[in-house]
């Protein structure tokens, strides 16, 4: 899963910690609101194995669970989808406690550096034969989950290449073009995007975008340097300042619905037409169609302002404390095979992180009916192949949450935009030292 549009991503797909004190439930890759459970069951005396998997949002696992269990009758897959930040925080707590972690845990790009620095807490997948998959992955994707001493803690699921999703019917009502090529030309830059939003809001009386945070994250993902440099020094005056300024401009222009991402009000915003556009890492497609299924054919996908970026994208990891490590690896290895990766892509939109699949007709020629037959394979494959991902520091996840919290305070009227940047710097500094 987010969130370059992924972190939307990855972005997306974006978005995720002993003692980080995560304050908000601002997710960058989706949430379900389900409570976290205890660790998976041990293998029973009759040979049955229960594998618990912690993740967030919709990673296309429901259909795959049934398929795997049918092929492996001794295995029961327990899916535990929870809120994005909470899942990462819970994993960190369980690692510190030494027990209770799931058999398999998804880890997002915003947290992978933090967890790879604790590689001794995870199964080194190279010991299970994972080295044979290195050549199949985007180079940066493979390296991002590798520790400094060469241990590989995860196998990549997806990448969060960015685009912009928009409602064709709402654009038409505002007198704006609706075909994706013409819409892409409306906003070569983020300033042009905000101006388009002003026209939309003036014509309809409605807000144009969902949230200031969902502008902050994709803009940040497009910058050469994010919150941290490779020496783990906080760099707020670079990329974060650029992204923060865009979010403040949108809020002050009155085009943002000011909805907290991945919360119930945000989901209601989809259903009640409270915004017409939002940044879309590939993993966002699944959230849109799951949240507002009756809007099939009313959405389309255009280029994102500023070009490119990655928001989100995740890895499957296996905590060492699990009781069923061998069976867990077998399942993870099965999940990353082309057949399953393509199935997930078609089901929820998550773009594989194995570039050979971008040339597979099943991906390259695929058109998403829900999104006005948009050629999602072509759109997102092009962004993924040209990605130049940022370095994401050990404290990237909690730092991003801290800054998002400040943006949310502005959106809710609790903080003046003029005072917001100083507050964001202060809160980011706290998070970096926690």
TrEMBL record:
Coiled coil (UniProt feature): none
Natural source organism: Actinoplanes missouriensis (strain ATCC 14538 / DSM 43046 / CBS 188.64 / JCM 3121 / NBRC 102363 / NCIMB 12654 / NRRL B-3342 / UNCC 431)
Superkingdom field: Bacteria
Database matches in Pfam families: SBP_bac_8
PANTHER family per the UniProt record, alphabetical: ARABINOSE-BINDING PROTEIN-RELATED (PTHR43649), SUGAR BINDING SECRETED PROTEIN (PTHR43649:SF32)
Name assigned to this protein: Putative cellobiose ABC transporter solute-binding protein
InterPro entries reported in the protein's UniProt record: Bact_solute-bd_prot1 (IPR050490), SBP (IPR006059)
């Amino acid at each position: 899963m987010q969130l370059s549009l992924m972190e939307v991503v990855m972005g997306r797909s974006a978005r995720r910690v002993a003692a980080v004190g995560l304050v908000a439930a601002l997710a960058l890759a989706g949430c379900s609101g389900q409570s976290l459970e205890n660790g998976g069951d041990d293998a029973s005396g009759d040979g049955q194995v229960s594998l618990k998997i912690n993740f967030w949002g919709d990673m296309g696992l429901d259909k795959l669970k049934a398929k795997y269990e049918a092929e492996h009758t001794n295995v029961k897959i327990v899916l535990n989808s929870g809120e994005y930040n909470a899942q990462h925080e819970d994993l960190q707590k369980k690692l510190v406690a030494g027990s209770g972690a799931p058999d398999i845990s998804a880890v997002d790009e915003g947290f992978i550096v933090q967890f790879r620095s604790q590689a001794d807490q995870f199964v080194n997948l190279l010991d299970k034969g994972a080295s044979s998959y290195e050549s199949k992955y985007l180079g940066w994707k493979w390296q991002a989950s590798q520790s400094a001493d060469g241990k590989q803690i995860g196998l990549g699921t997806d990448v969060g290449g960015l685009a912009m999703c928009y409602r064709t019917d709402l654009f038409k009502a505002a007198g704006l073009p609706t075909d994706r090529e013409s819409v892409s030309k409306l906003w070569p830059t983020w300033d042009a995007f905000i101006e388009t939003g002003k026209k939309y809001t003036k014509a309809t009386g409605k807000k144009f975008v969902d949230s200031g945070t969902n502008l902050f994250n994709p803009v940040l993902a497009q910058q050469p340097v994010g919150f941290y440099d490779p020496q783990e020094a906080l760099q707020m005056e670079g990329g974060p300042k650029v992204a923060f300024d865009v979010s403040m401009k949108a809020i002050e222009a009155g085009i943002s619905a000011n909805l907290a991402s991945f919360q119930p009000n945000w989901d209601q915003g989809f259903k009640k037409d409270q915004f017409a556009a939002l940044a879309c890492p590939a993993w966002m497609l699944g959230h849109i169609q799951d949240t507002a299924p009756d809007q099939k054919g009313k959405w389309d996908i255009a280029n994102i302002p500023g070009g490119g970026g990655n928001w989100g994208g995740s890895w499957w990891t296996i905590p060492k404390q699990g009781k069923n490590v061998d069976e867990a690896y077998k399942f993870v290895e099965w999940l990353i095979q082309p057949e399953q990766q393509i199935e997930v892509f078609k089901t929820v939109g998550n773009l594989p992180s194995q570039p050979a699949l971008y040339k597979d007709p099943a991906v390259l020629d695929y058109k998403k009916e829900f999104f006005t037959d948009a050629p999602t394979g072509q759109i997102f494959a092009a962004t993924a192949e040209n990605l130049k991902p940022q370095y994401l520091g050990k404290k990237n996840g909690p730092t991003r949450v801290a800054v998002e919290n400040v943006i949310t305070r502005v959106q809710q009227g609790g903080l003046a935009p003029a005072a917001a940047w100083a507050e964001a710097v202060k809160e980011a500094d706290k998070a970096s030292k926690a």
